[in-house]
């Protein structure tokens, strides 16, 4: 594991071979999100009826841990990001997805496209 920033740990599952994500890029990812404690999946783009997720990176359009973690990734890379609650949904949590207040999160993210 390597620390991307304080509160975001990254473990490369499969290295990428394409360009590195830069601030302002629109990226498309496959993602599976889990609570760290207790371990529980709350969302996956690979579930039936779901599709890859597209967002602009580095501009605060997603949780801070995603922005910071994805900026260190390359096209084709698969990584596990363990995100401290302060860089996730914090004290509010995200009740609609079963994310409790102050929950640490683990996401497996695959960079599919960078535009």
What do these coordinates show?
The structure is a single chain. With 115 residues, the chain is mainly β. The chain has one domain (2-114): Chitinase A, domain 3. Helices cover 6% and strands 40% of the residues. It has one helix and seven strands; from the N terminus they run E-E-E-E-E-H-E-E. The chain has one helix at residues 64-70; strands at 2-5, 8-14, 26-35, 40-44, 53-56, 78-83, 105-114. Strands 1, 2, 3, 4, 5, 6 and 7 form a seven-stranded antiparallel β-sheet that branches. A hairpin with a 4-residue loop joins strand 3 and strand 4 (40-44). It is globular, with a radius of gyration of 13 Å. The model has no long low-confidence stretch (mean pLDDT 96).
Short note summarizing the structure:
With about 120 residues, the chain is mainly beta. The protein is built from one helix and seven strands; from the N terminus they run E-E-E-E-E-H-E-E.
Task: Indicate how many domains the architecture comprises.
Answer: 1
Order of helices and strands: EEEEEHEE
Output the CATH topology: Chitinase A, domain 3
Largest sheet: 7 strands, antiparallel
Which structural traits does this protein have?
Chitinase A, domain 3; 1 helix; globular; mainly beta; PPIase_dom_sf; 7-stranded antiparallel beta sheet; 40% strand; 115 residues
